[in-house]
Specification:
alpha+beta, FAD/NAD(P)-binding domain, D-Amino Acid Oxidase, Chain A, domain 2, 2 domains, nine-stranded mixed β-sheet, six-stranded mixed β-sheet, 10 helices, 20 strands, 30% helix, 24% strand, binds flavin-adenine dinucleotide, oxidoreductase, FAD/NAD-bd_sf, FAD
């Protein structure tokens, strides 16, 4: 492909893992002079620094979707990057467990998708004894096991990628929120509270603020971001032997993030969660963090009645489990019957997911990218976007940047 970028000046909005992976790829490929704007005073301050740390192997995603394709490529890229930088990468493995016979058809669908997506070394397990060889304390009738599903520290990975950006001559400006953009003669004037610069191309990877940033260049307000908080409980360290790797429920493929699950983190901490409750602020990490503006915008979005009608039961279930520890505990104990309520200690490290939803109330399933003249906008990059960050970067460069903006 020809490279029309030449010595372009490229701005990236957002210092999460996707923005920094893009900055790194552009720098290493010599595609321009890169400047990253991050509104917080540190990198990875939002989703990237508040997630489960799982390197997904691609079990759930619709075959042929961008999620399926970029997750497979991204997993390998993250593994190689961690090896190169000597960052922890632990293949603790994931067991997706059917608790009873009623879940077998859904488990079969996960198995079908996993095979279509080329999940490495995937194995179907129908013997309880075999399940217990992998997770001695688990309950269930069948499972699929993905031994190469891994855990990492995404904030540390982002910092290591940022070092490559700086070493390659790129700039990362912290504490600089982009508040305005104007397209002038095919170039973009980018303004923060303290600076104003002109760039040839801009790529916005603004996570929870994706729709706000899109509006700065007059893009369609849809899809909007619906913030969903995910909360975790920690397992008391003396009970760490209850879980070897990851134990997940059979998910509804439309909402693979739902359902209480157990994950052994890269530093051997075991967390139980996350759930998914509506956040009352885009960056609302607690129930009491309320933004009247964000909440009003979500409630008055044209798709709100349709979403509420379809999913109110699920919403009530998730909210009650968030507010009542006993409900959460009961959900978790179905998978690990030896779990006691007192084994769940301190609710920790909530994260807020940036989930895009359309005017019709439908949640966008796949990654989504928009182009407005010289500005490329990542409109939907939820899980597994951390796993896929390096392949999303290559995808955006190859499909949106190395072609002319006009
Ligand atoms: C609870 C939870 C669990 C998850 N678990 C996993 C998992 O196990 N594996 C996985 O692969 N994915 C997981 N994810 C998803 C993953 O964390 C995200 O998909 C990924 O981090 C997205 O990265 P990002 O760079 O797009 O967004 P972010 O990390 O949110 O970064 C966006 C950045 O843009 C900045 N910004 C916004 N507006 C502006 C502006 N105007 N000017 C300047 N800067 C701006 C923000 O401050 C922010 O730092 C999880 C997410 C959550 C919330």
């Amino acid at each position: 492909m020809t490279d029309p970028l030449g010595a372009a000046r490229i701005a990236i909005i957002g210092g999460g893992i996707v923005g920094i992976a893009l900055a790194r790829a552009l720098t290493l490929r010599g595609l321009g002079e890169v400047t990253v704007f991050e509104k917080e005073h540190r990198l990875a301050a939002h989703q990237t620094g508040h997630n489960s740390g799982v390197v997904h192997a691609g079990l759930y995603y619709k075959p042929g979707s961008l999620k399926a394709e970029l997750c497979a490529l991204g997993r390998v890229a993250i593994r190689e990057f961690c090896a190169e930088k000597k960052l922890p990468y632990r293949e603790v493995g994931k067991l997706v467990v059917a608790i009873d016979e009623s879940e077998l058809p859904a488990l079969a669908e996960i198995e079908r998708r996993s095979i279509a997506n080329g999940v490495p070394d995937l194995r179907r397990i129908d013997e309880v004894a075999e399940l217990r060889e992998i997770e001695p304390h688990v309950a269930g009738v069948a499972a699929v096991h993905s031994p190469q599903t891994a855990v990492v520290d995404y904030a540390a990975i982002t910092e290591a990628m940022a070092q490559d950006v700086r070493a390659g001559g790129g700039s990362i400006l912290l504490g600089q929120e982009v508040v305005a953009m104007t397209v002038e003669a095919g170039r973009v004037r980018v303004r923060t509270a303290v600076s104003e610069q002109v760039f040839d191309r801009v790529i916005a990877c603004a996570g929870l603020q994706s729709d706000v940033v899109a509006k700065l260049v007059g893009a369609d307000p849809s899809p909007k971001i619906l913030p969903f908080r995910g909360e975790y409980w920690s397992l008391a360290p003396e009970r760490n032997d209850l879980v070897n790797g990851m134990i997940y429920p059979v998910p509804d493929p439309r909402f693979p993030f739902l359902g209480v699950h157990f994950t052994r983190g890269v530093y051997d901490d075991i967390h139980v969660g996350p759930n998914a409750v509506p956040a009352l602020a885009r960056e609302g990490y607690r129930w009491l963090a309320i933004s009247p503006k964000d909440t009003w915008e979500s409630l008055t979005w044209p798709g709100a009645p349709s979403l509420a009608k379809q999913h109110w039961r699920m919403g009530v279930d998730e909210i009650s489990a968030s507010l009542l520890k006993t409900r959460w505990f009961r959900k978790a104990r179905r998978f690990v019957p030896e779990l006691r309520s007192r084994d769940l200690v301190a609710k920790t490290a909530a994260g807020v997911r940036a989930q895009a939803w359309g005017r019709d109330g439908a949640l966008l399933d796949d990654f989504a990218v928009d182009q407005v003249g010289p500005v490329t906008l990542l409109r939907n990059a939820p899980s597994p976007a951390a796993t896929s960050s390096m392949s999303i970067a290559d995808y955006v460069i190859d499909h949106f940047l190395t072609v002319r903006a006009d």
